[in-house]
Design brief:
Largest sheet: 3 strands, antiparallel
CATH superfamily of the largest domain: Intergrase catalytic core
CATH class of the largest domain: Mainly Alpha
Number of domains: 3
Helix content: 40-55%
Oligomer: single chain
Number of helices: 19
Shape: elongated
Strand content: under 5%
Number of strands: 3
Order of helices and strands: HHHHHHHHHEEEHHHHHHHHHH
Distance between the termini: 49 Å
Amino acid sequence: MSDFTEQNEKWILKFESGRNWIPKLPSQHTKRIFIRALQKYCEAVKQNPDELINLKIEGLKAVATETEFQAERQLETYLRNSAMTASVKAESKNAIISFFKHNWRNLNPNVASDIEAPEAKKRTPTIEDIQALDANMTTSRDKALVWFFPSTAVRIETLTKLFKHDLKPTGDGEVPYYIEIEAERLKGHGKGKYKGLKQITFVHKLAWQRLEDYFAEAKRKGYNLTDDSPLFIAYKGHFSKEEKRLAVKPKKIRVMTQGAINQVYDNASLSAWKDLEIKRFSPHDFRDFIQSQLENADINANVIAPIMAHKTRNAVDSHYSSHMWQELLPKYKQALPYLLPVSVEKLKTETDQLKAENDKLKTEYGELEDKFVEKLAEKQKETMQAVYAMLKAQGLKVSWEEESAKPD
């Protein structure tokens, strides 16, 4: 925790209303953002947190008078007169509403209804974007979320219906688990055109490593996860040193809500790029990511369909036999170079090896006809272009044309 964050937390804990609020915030990251937003609000209206609550109490005692909604009007005036960006205004609104809610003095649900976070700009994340989000997540659970979505392509509403026992081992080290999800837990709930739909998808090794870290973290926090537990759970506060010493009872396990998941992504996007209007990702964006990468790996659309929980395009590929995941696994593994971070140094080494092998071949066959040499050079160019296409898919700014023009 930074000195600045620690000072803000000490400030809020001076007030009874702050002490009611802080334990209810789900993560240290949310605390940092929400406390600072409330502090700025208090400075602007020249009231401390307890005085804000008293303002609302006065309104509750004066129903049907001008005073009844004075707390709401004060918040709306603050937000509308502020020079903050739309995304920061929405963040501030959420923080202040949360503060009143957890002090049992809910603001009217229509307060500042015109203040909303801007809709995320349509963009497909790159591997570098996923790594940036990972670096700005504050818990192992949230880091697991970052990699689970681009590994599996599940929708957020489906994620909240998954359990630990949905993870089925494949026996493959590169892709250790698969997940098979029936229509009732997918979009459309198996009705109408969605009848008979099924999603068969995979958890690659990096996503599984993050899941293992998260399961260990949950255990440390006092959550005893079983195979029947929700795959992603809500964190509610933390154990104090005294609670740990007294070996308190295990915490109640609750599924992580869609709202909480979206908030995690908003918080990480804000930390990574400082403004949600510049760059912001939601869980759904990672469906676009995985579909694009599967296509980059030249995987047939009818093979991609069950991984994405889409209908297949023809009857021949629409079967879902008991061996379907075994049939899909080799195709999914084909896309791993596009789905996982690849060391630039490793790619450079492999590229250098390819170039050296091709140079050797040209030397060995240098006395052959020019036509054969030309075909060999063309093959080398195709190989190198494929390598650089993979680099580009990773989000790296490289070009075969630029690199090939450089002197040896």
